[in-house]
Amino acid sequence: LGVDLSLVLGSGLRGRITREDLNNFVQHQLSASSKNHSMSYEGDADSHIDFAQFGPIETNELTKIQSITSKRLQESWAKVPHVTQFDDAEITELEEFRKSLNLQSKAKNLKINLTAFLMKAVFFCLKSNPKFNRSLVDQGLSYIQKDYFHIGIAVDTEKGLLVPVIRDVDSKGIFELANEIGNI
Distance between CA atoms of 28 and 108, rounded to whole angstroms? Predict the structure, then answer.
């Protein structure tokens, strides 16, 4: 069970640890962990936000296993060091297409950048995997399924890091997205 036996008090002959001691210790640790965990659960950090003001939503209850899983994932997120991964992607054709769009958009004084394409790609990922477009509420017992696609992008400015949100990415084309990004 991965228990540090030096923490378990033995009730057997000469202080030996019995199976019952081990089971009691594990049960006590699990109940203490769940009590502490429920007090420190951060899933309601966004509960004061009225997500309906941003677009259509649907509220659903989580199953017991989903609720437990969400709490454990939240705990893991808070305790485990975060890692960044970099991958290479072959975007030669995309870059050629982007440059051809830039030629078309010169008259509009608009520059098409890669971020507009990435935002559209993120939208299609969210649309095909709607579980990633949710927020936990009610101490992790329910979730809000967002039926809108607003995407924030981190921008380094003189005032520091800002995250402007581009709303309704699903209904905008590359030119519109590039225009909004350019006006940030």
Answer: 68
Q: Which residue has the higher pLDDT, 83 or 42?
A: 83
Q: Could you tell me if 46 and 137 are in contact, meaning their C-beta atoms sit under 8 angstroms apart? A: yes
What's the pTM?
A: 0.67
Instruction: Tell me the C-alpha distance between 33 and 72, whole Å.
Output: 11
Task: Tell me how far apart the alpha carbons of residues 177 and 171 are, in angstroms, rounded to a whole number.
Answer: 10
Round to whole Å and give the CA distance between 43 and 67.
Answer: 11
For 165-183, the pLDDT digits (tens) are 999 999 999 999 999 998 8
Exposed / middle / buried, residue 100 (Cβ in 10 Å: 0-12, 13-18, 19+): exposed
Q: How confident is the model at residue 11 (pLDDT cuts 50, 70, 90)?
A: confident
The answer for residues whose C-beta is within 8 angstroms of residue 166's C-beta and 6 or more apart is: 119, 150, 151, 152, 153, 172, 177, 180, 181
- Distance (Å, whole) CA 147 – CA 133: 8
Closest-CA residue to 177 (of 96, 101, 100, 126)? 101
**How far apart, in whole angstroms, are the C-alpha atoms of residue 51 and residue 139?**
16
Integer Cα distance of 145 and 136 in angstroms? 9
Give the highest mean pLDDT range of 33-37, 67-71, 118-122, 137-141. Answer: 118-122
